[in-house]
Amino acid sequence: MTSVLLSEMTWKEAEQRIKDAKAVILPLGSTEQHGYHMTLNIDSLVAEYISKEIAKRTNSLVLPPLNYGQVWSAKDFPATISIGEKNYISFIKDIVKSLENNFAKNIILFSGHWGNVAPIKIAVRELKDEMGFSNVYYLSYMNLKKYSEGLMESELWNGSGFHSGEIETSIALYVCPKNVNMEQAVCEYPIVPPDIDNRPIPWRDFAVSGVFGDATKATVEKGEQFIEKWINDMVQMINNL
Fold first, then answer.
1. Which of 3, 23, 69, 122 supports an S-S bond with 106, CB 3.0-4.6 Å?
2. pTM (2 decimals)?
3. Phi, psi dihedral angles at 58 (to 5 degrees)
4. Which long-range contacts (CB under 8 A, 24 or more apart) does 237-241 make?
5. Is the pLDDT of residue 1 over 70?
6. Whole-number pLDDT of residue 204
């Protein structure tokens, strides 16, 4: 099968492939704590895996992943690396401009880290206002509750939090099992600060392990089912562009 990875092509090969491809996908990850049981690169591994699967099913191409992201919430955990929003936005915009110069039909910014979504959205808006680009899309975790219905045995933290909990751990077990040590998995539902929606509060102020939910309930099978639903919806969306 012909590779979907731009990093494995010469510039002459890439020149025509970019023009012919449905989209060019940039996987966006992070270097961030994922509890006691998962490695710091989980978001990047998931982003790259999902991006490659989408590319195979949509005649698209995948750029090398960006392994650092906006991780303000978890920045006080050891070894978590957070990029400031302004720098991150500027970097994303430069990548998109390069792809536009190479005549990419569509550009997909796919994030395996939820914290990247806000700056990505700003970057795309600015590119629209400044350059008129209307072929840049941003995707991340979507329809979380719908996809996890019938799979999850535990509740989402604070109604929507899933970081390092049952679902994210299940996804990692399927995508990168060597990066998960279930013997260290814990269940933690940190007490929700009453003003969490009204002021910035770093996770380290109220969380111990960095897990939000019950990671002990994770399984490979749950991860596979969740990912297939997730990918199928995104493939349909991209094919319809």
1. 23
2. 0.96
3. -130, 10
4. 237/139, 238/22, 238/23, 238/54, 238/58, 238/60, 238/106, 238/108, 239/22, 239/58, 241/22, 241/23, 241/105, 241/106, 241/137
5. no
6. 97
Confidence check: pLDDT of 145 > 90: no
Contact call for residues 113 and 43 (beta carbons, < 8 A): yes
Angle at 164 between CA 158 and CA 166, to 5 degrees: 75
Distances (CA, A) of 47 to 9, 12, 114, 141, 238: 20, 26, 11, 10, 16
Q: Beta-carbon neighbour count of residue 38 at 10 Å?
A: 28
DSSP letter, residue 34 = B
Judging by DSSP bridges, how do beta strands 61-62 and 24-28 pair with one another?
Answer: parallel
Chain position carrying tokens 């939000």: 212
**How does pLDDT run across 148-168, given as a tens digit for each residue?**
989 999 999 999 999 999 999
CA-wise closest residue to 26 among 123, 146, 169, 142? 123
Angstrom distance (rounded) from CA 202 to CA 77: 10
Task: List, for residues 176-224, the tens digit of each pLDDT value.
Answer: 999 999 999 999 999 999 999 999 999 999 999 999 999 999 999 999 9
The H-or-E segment that residue 11 falls in is: helix 11-20
Taking the C-alpha atoms of residue 148 and residue 132, their distance in angstroms, rounded to an integer, is 37
The C-alpha atoms of residue 206 and residue 191 are separated, in whole angstroms, by 7
